[in-house]
TrEMBL record:
<protein>
    <recommendedName>
        <fullName>Aldose 1-epimerase</fullName>
    </recommendedName>
</protein>
<dbReference type="Pfam" id="PF01263">
    <property type="entry name" value="Aldose_epim"/>
</dbReference>
<dbReference type="InterPro" id="IPR014718">
    <property type="entry name" value="GH-type_carb-bd"/>
</dbReference>
<dbReference type="InterPro" id="IPR008183">
    <property type="entry name" value="Aldose_1/G6P_1-epimerase"/>
</dbReference>
<dbReference type="InterPro" id="IPR011013">
    <property type="entry name" value="Gal_mutarotase_sf_dom"/>
</dbReference>
Length: 323
């Protein structure tokens, strides 16, 4: 096991100061609060409990610097549409057409996380405990590599008591079929005593570019079932056979957060790198590079094809508890 990273709460003062940013939408239910950043990829900037000692964060909160940079990768969680994670060389073939996404402004060599996280979302209906966010994408012929299918997306982000519920959906507006995947990308506080528990069947091994090579056994599969220390392995991998529930526990603080997903999100990613104090347990509908997967692997990579006018919706819950 690696030496554990220090508690990332060294940034807590910056994060707590950012909670009052006027560009954020504040939602409250009892002692639980959310901050939502529509302009920063429709992201959640913070999810926390208010206490006499200060905020207790269930997701890693955005700092002042992150908000100033408008960087979704430094938010608490952000939506992934119309695909999750990487596409090799930003290219794939679909329905007899070669799709090249390399010029759409995504600065990664392998197109990453779709385009919705790099767009401002429009605010719709809002209450004290919920907000609707909307995004409509129309392909821009002047942008080489722009996602070539028109679609609209919606998020309903809400507090139900202290539970965070996110309803994520999309509709194909194109006059042809569209390959599709979606998910959410939450970051959690990572400490020396953070443990992740989830029932999974196998892991996609990956190359140095974090692109899948083969599906198979790995010690992390068994470790996840029993409770995996966030410091046990160097992970940025997809797991199959996920039972759509994962528990992130901070054992020394006697608190935990349970993520549950509906059948739309049949895949799970764990990102716990050796080099940084980061932890993600991501509910997704498709594995990395699913659009380039061979036909005989399709049942293990997820994703779908939306017909013209067809819609898809999925629901996620994060439930906090103390023990």
């Amino acid at each position: 096991m690696r030496n554990a990273f220090p508690n990332p709460s060294s940034d807590s003062a910056s994060a707590d100061a950012a909670l009052d940013d006027p560009s954020l939408i504040a939602l409250r239910s009892g002692n639980t609060e959310l901050r939502v950043a529509p302009r920063i990829g429709g992201s959640i900037a913070a999810y926390f409990e208010t206490t006499d000692a200060g905020p207790v964060h269930w997701m890693r909160p955005a700092t002042r610097a992150a908000l100033d940079a408008r960087n979704p990768l430094q938010m608490a969680s952000f939506p992934l549409l119309p695909y999750c994670n990487r596409i090799r060389d930003a290219r794939f073939d679909f329905d007899g057409q070669s799709i090249d996404l390399s010029g759409d402004g995504n600065t990664f060599a392998h197109a990453l996380h779709g385009n919705a996280w790099r767009r401002a979302w429009r605010v719709g209906k809002q209450t004290a405990t919920s907000v609707e966010l909307h995004l409509e994408h129309t392909p821009d012929a002047s942008i080489p590599g722009d996602w070539p299918f028109a679609y609209q997306a919606r998020q309903i982000i809400e507090l139900i008591g202290d539970v965070l519920r996110v309803t994520l959906g999309a509709r194909n507006l194109a006059d042809r079929a569209m390959p599709f995947g979606m998910g959410h990308h939450p970051y959690y506080p990572r400490t020396a005593n953070t443990v992740v528990t989830a029932s999974v069947d196998a892991m996609w091994h990956a190359d140095p570019d974090v692109l899948p090579t083969h599906l198979g056994a790995h010690p992390a599969v068994d470790a996840l079932r029993d409770g995996l220390s966030a410091d046990a392995f160097d992970l940025d991998n997809n797991f199959t056979g996920w039972k759509r529930e994962a528990v992130i526990a901070w054992t020394d603080e006697h608190r935990k957060l349970t993520l549950t997903a509906d059948e739309t999100f049949g895949q799970m990613v764990v990102f716990a790198p050796a080099s940084e104090a980061l932890l993600c347990v991501e509910p997704v509908s498709n594995t990395t590079d699913c659009f380039n997967s061979p036909a005989d692997a399709r049942e293990n990579v997820g994703g779908c094809v939306l017909k013209p006018g067809e819609s898809i919706t999925g629901v996620l819950h994060w439930t906090p508890a103390r023990y």
